[in-house]
Design goal:
This protein is mostly helical and 288 residues long. Helices cover 82% and strands 0% of the residues.
Length: 288
């Protein structure tokens, strides 16, 4: 099998299993978990940049460019919102709805490309987006409210991807700069919690402490695998592999955590899955 496929599939598999990781930290306040994720991720990123000195050199150049810094301030804000919303949603028993967000995300990316990057919308893509919108509207009508968690995750990650397309830095350097932007408020929050409530780190059992410290690794590892795999496979292959993560999340929510899947909710998901099938088949046909 192509190494690129293995790398990309590995990245999506880790992302698909993340609910298990965050559920293990369910007794840690979500904001504290998020702050630890930022702090430890930056330490991992710094270590990787020291190993790859050319990455460190490019990062130093970027720090002298105001436009680049502004872009990464915005991407860091979107990323922290996305991470925080996802951690809260998983620990508040909304794993199924988080999966819907990442099922919708590829189609939202197409829409954002048309709206902001003047990309041409192919007929098959237009049909897929229309069907997905019908699915979201169906869920909104049957539940009496839009699926805000799914839409929040899809919108924040879609806008994040859009901004990263305009950024001049590669994956590792960009992730490092984003972590540098998020680090000061995250560290300040951890110091504040340490003085007010004592904080969780070093006051919980060994397992929880190790999980908090490993949040940096669990964040960086799939990003690096994805970056490596994306360079070795076609966009069509990457587009098909991206459904691994939300499919695993959906399965965990229903089969492991017993979240409710009413007939109406299932119909809404099926409509979105039909949209994704149209989108994927159209991509494969065009690639051939």
């Amino acid at each position: 099998m192509n190494r690129g496929v293995l790398y990309a599939a590995g990245a999506y598999t880790i992302w698909g299993l993340l609910p298990l990781f965050w559920k293990a930290l369910v007794n840690v306040p979500e904001l504290e978990t998020l702050a630890h994720r930022v702090v430890w991720a930056l330490l991992v990123a710094f270590g990787l940049n020291l190993i790859r000195r050319e990455s460190w050199a490019r990062l130093m150049v970027a720090l002298r460019d105001r436009r680049t810094i502004l872009i990464f301030v915005l991407t860091a804000a979107l990323l922290s919102f996305n991470w925080g919303l996802y951690i809260w949603a998983v620990n508040d028993n909304h794993v199924v709805e988080t999966s819907l967000g990442y099922f919708i995300n590829p189609l939202l990316n197409v829409f954002l490309g048309v709206a902001f990057l003047r990309e041409r919308l192919r007929p098959g893509q237009a049909v897929a987006i229309a069907v997905a919108l019908a699915g979201v509207l169906f869920l909104t009508v049957t539940y009496g409210a839009p699926p805000w968690i799914a839409l929040g995750l899809a919108a924040s990650f879609g806008l994040y991807g859009l901004l990263r397309k305009t950024a001049p830095l590669a994956s590792l350097e960009g992730f490092t700069l984003e972590s540098m932007v998020m680090f000061p408020p995250a560290l300040a929050f951890l110091i504040y919690t340490a003085f007010t409530s004592g904080g969780v780190l070093f006051h919980a059992d060994l397992g929880v402490n190790l999980l908090l410290i490993s949040t940096g690794l669990i964040t960086a590892a799939p990003l690096l695998l994805f970056a490596a795999g994306a360079r070795m496979v076609t966009m069509t292959t990457l587009g098909l592999l991206q459904y691994i993560a939300p499919t695993m999340q959906f399965s965990l929510g229903v089969l492991v955590y017993g979240e409710a899947l009413t007939p109406e909710r299932l119909i809404g998901f099926i409509i979105v899955w039909i949209a994704l099938l149209i989108y994927s088949v159209e991509g494969v046909i065009r690639q051939r």
